[in-house]
Design the sequence.
């Protein structure tokens, strides 16, 4: 959502920049392609980024490899050396963390030189090799399978069924196992990261090849149509894994398999440049496009590149929040509708972790500063907000709803969400994208304090900066074994209203191309080039809604500080009122990007600070904007609606988002002949004749109300609603509220909840009817006068 000449998140101007003619690139000395410095060549200087790496390293070293290996040992017929971890590692997705952990160890070694990380990674690879040898057929995994009777067994049990054509998936569950192919993608990435960042490892390659043989045999048993049924279950970037295995071995078998792992329903529209992302699970999609990008680098097929580029453009322009993250409750909404989805469940970290990977692929094909404008935004404002900077916990979501707090995994806790895994990796490699090179040019893409080795020039570089809090950065050639004439390209962000370049302290003219200031001269040891960027305040509207805005200073997203996270926020959402909003901001501590407001905010002024540093605070990021005249009209209705929403939220005991993966798992949903669905941008679930769906909800003492949401144009149908197998209501839908969603409240008899902490809510259709669709269920306390 950048403003200015490269407003790539809000305008259609991005790809013309990416398609800069080759002649212009050559004249301005912008390289045609680029590659990053090796992570091992970069060492971070003291900064928030360096602290994040060290906090993460301490977290990694607190974890037990043997506990993460528990299921791998157990299912190979070996005695586990330590008990299994809890959380997701005790669910049917068990084992996914080990792949992330291998990556985290390898990346941390590359970034810091940590030898303890090498020892742990080497040990894990050795144990995995033992487990694979014990299986004898290439198989190695830690995931489990839950049978219909509830028994939990080795996940390997599902694959003979699949090979016979018995394939059952509801999107995240494959024959009773939670996303096994996604799980294996994490393991493959970990194996390759060990090889790339620690060193050649014959055992790691043997594991990758042996496991590939097992997976290939499963796919070989299936028709193309059956493969598509199987790929309805989230598979991560397994296509990338086999593209990479082909690139490393030259074996065409793996390329064939990589191209077969292609989900037509999601990917075909993208190759045709059609945005049909609404209501798709966001992070299920991003790794598929990374896989296509990697395949394009191997095959040169244009459709693979088209899909990857188009997806990136649509997500960054039309589906992303101001911090660079995307998705609400893990799902994309319709394009340009994010102002309707500013909730406590925005911005899953995994999505941004993967979007940054995809950005690196696209940049390597054709450098352009617009790509790194997005990268910087998401890396600084989302990824850096994802880590709790004392104990190294991680967020799953980074909430943007006013007053929401960030929920971090606690120290030594055992949640092991997917975003814990990607967090281990993200905070191990903050130096990976600072420096790039191509066609003998040196490119600086991120202004992060660091030292680096540039092997091609036998050079030592030093990047000194207080950015993003100051607008100046100086690159010094501390040593330069191969002096000579070459271009140095410094990124000029699209939001910058100007730039100034100095060489050895004296102003110089610089060429401009693709979002860079480029200085070409004969460089020698001791030379220094400085860039100065103005860090102006600016306002950005959400795509599709000019009335919903956020405030930025340079690359930093600013947030209104609403107090400590362990406090409460029960006030109306603040709004900005005035004809010149920025005039209401007054600098307080410029070195820390802190501001006060005067006469700007209703109901009262706020302090504004960098959002990413609000890890233990509540924040307001998005604001409705009004002129003074508009506010007089809107104030009464606006505040009344805010009060209604706050009242309902305050009285809510539990909320169930039907049709969404994690809420349904968290609420122990069980069902028969029941299906998740999406209609008009809302997720829901129904049950057909002979079926049901049931889930647990927390309760508290006192009168309660169960509220269900329906669409008003449903054809006639009837169903019962039960609590702990006792009917509390019969609902008939018959086009009751045309053109609108509506809520129905059902009083809950107190005897059904007395002395209980939770109840089971069940929806059961009448014969030859369906139940629902139901687009969410809420349980809340009745108002004191409700029974009067």
Sequence:
């Amino acid at each position: 959502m950048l403003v200015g000449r490269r407003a790539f998140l809000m305008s259609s101007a991005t790809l013309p920049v990416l398609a800069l003619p080759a002649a212009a690139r050559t004249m301005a000395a912008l390289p045609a392609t680029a590659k990053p410095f090796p992570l091992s060549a970069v060492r971070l200087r003291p900064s928030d980024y360096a602290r994040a790496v060290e906090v993460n390293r301490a977290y990694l070293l607190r974890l037990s490899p043997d506990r993460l290996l528990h299921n791998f040992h157990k299912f190979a017929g070996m005695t586990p050396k330590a008990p299994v971890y809890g959380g997701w590692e005790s669910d049917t997705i068990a084992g996914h963390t080990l792949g992330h952990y291998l990556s985290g160890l390898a990346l941390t070694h590359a970034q810091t030189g940590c030898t303890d990380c090498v020892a742990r990674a080497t040990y894990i690879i050795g144990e995995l090799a033992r487990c694979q040898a014990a299986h004898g057929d290439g198989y190695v995994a830690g995931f489990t399978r839950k049978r219909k009777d509830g028994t939990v067994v080795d996940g390997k049990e599902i694959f003979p069924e699949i090979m016979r054509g018995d394939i059952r998936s509801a999107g995240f569950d494959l024959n009773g196992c939670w996303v096994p192919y996604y799980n294996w993608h994490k393991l493959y990435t970990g194996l390759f990261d060990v090889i790339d960042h620690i060193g050649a490892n014959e055992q790691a390659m043997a594991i990758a090849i042996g496991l590939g043989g097992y997976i290939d045999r499963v796919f070989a048993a299936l028709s193309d149509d059956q493969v598509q049924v199987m790929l309805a279950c989230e598979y991560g970037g397994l296509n990338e894994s086999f593209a990479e295995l082909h690139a490393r071995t030259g074996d065409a078998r793996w390329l064939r398999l990589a191209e077969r792992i292609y989900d037509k329903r999601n990917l075909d529209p993208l190759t045709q440049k059609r945005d049909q992302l609404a209501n798709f699970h966001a992070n299920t999609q991003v790794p598929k496009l990374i896989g296509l990008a990697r395949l394009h680098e191997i095959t040169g097929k244009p459709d693979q590149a088209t899909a990857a580029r188009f997806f990136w453009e649509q997500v960054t322009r039309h589906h992303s929040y101001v911090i660079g993250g995307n998705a609400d409750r893990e799902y994309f909404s319709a394009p340009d509708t994010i102002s309707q989805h500013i909730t406590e469940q925005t911005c899953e970290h995994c999505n941004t972790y993967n979007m940054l990977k995809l950005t690196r692929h696209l940049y390597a094909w054709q450098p352009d500063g617009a790509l790194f404008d997005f990268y910087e935004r998401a890396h600084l404002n989302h990824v850096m907000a994802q880590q709790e900077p004392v104990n190294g916990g991680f967020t799953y979501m980074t909430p943007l709803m006013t007053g929401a707090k960030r929920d971090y995994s606690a120290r030594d806790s055992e949640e092991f969400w997917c975003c814990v895994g990607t967090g281990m990796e993200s905070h191990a490699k903050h130096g990976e994208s600072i420096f790039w090179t191509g066609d003998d040019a040196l490119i600086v893409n991120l202004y992060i304090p660091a030292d680096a080795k540039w092997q091609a020039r036998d050079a030592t570089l030093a990047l000194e900066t207080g950015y993003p809090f100051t607008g100046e950065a100086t690159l010094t050639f501390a040593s330069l074994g191969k002096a000579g004439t070459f271009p140095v390209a410094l990124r000029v962000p699209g939001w910058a209203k100007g730039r100034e370049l100095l060489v050895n302290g004296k102003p110089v003219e610089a060429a401009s191309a693709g979002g860079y200031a480029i200085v070409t001269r004969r460089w020698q040891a001791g030379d220094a080039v400085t860039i100065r960027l103005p860090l102006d305040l600016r306002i950005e509207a959400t795509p599709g809604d000019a009335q919903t805005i956020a405030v930025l200073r340079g690359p930093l997203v600013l947030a209104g500080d609403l107090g400590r996270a362990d406090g409460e926020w029960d006030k109306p959402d603040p709004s900005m009122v005035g004809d010149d909003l920025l005039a209401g901001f007054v600098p307080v501590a410029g070195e820390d990007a802190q501001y006060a407001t005067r006469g700007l905010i209703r109901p009262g002024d706020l302090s504004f600070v960098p959002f990413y540093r609000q890890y233990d605070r509540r924040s307001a990021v998005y604001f409705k904007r009004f002129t003074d005249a508009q506010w007089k009209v809107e104030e009464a209705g606006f505040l009344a609606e805010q009060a209604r929403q706050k009242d309902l939220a305050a009285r809510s005991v539990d909320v169930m988002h039907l049709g969404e993966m994690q809420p349904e798992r968290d609420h122990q949903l069980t069902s028969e002949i029941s299906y998740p669905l999406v209609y008009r941008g809302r997720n829901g679930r129904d049950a057909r004749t002979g079926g049901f769906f049931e889930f647990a909800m927390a309760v508290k003492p006192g009168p309660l109300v169960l509220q269900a949401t329906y669409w008003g144009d449903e054809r006639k149908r009837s169903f019962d609603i039960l609590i702990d197998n006792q009917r509390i209501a019969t609902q008939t839908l018959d086009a009751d509220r045309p053109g609108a969603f509506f809520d129905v409240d059902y009083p809950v008899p107190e005897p059904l909840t007395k002395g209980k902490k939770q109840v089971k809510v069940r929806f059961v259709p009448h014969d030859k009817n369906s139940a629902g669709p139901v687009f969410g269920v809420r349980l809340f306390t009745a108002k004191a006068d409700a029974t009067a």
Summary: The chain has 21 helices and 37 strands. Confidence is low (pLDDT under 50) at residues 1-27. Residues 584 and 600 are 5 Å apart (CA to CA). The two ends are 51 Å apart (CA to CA).
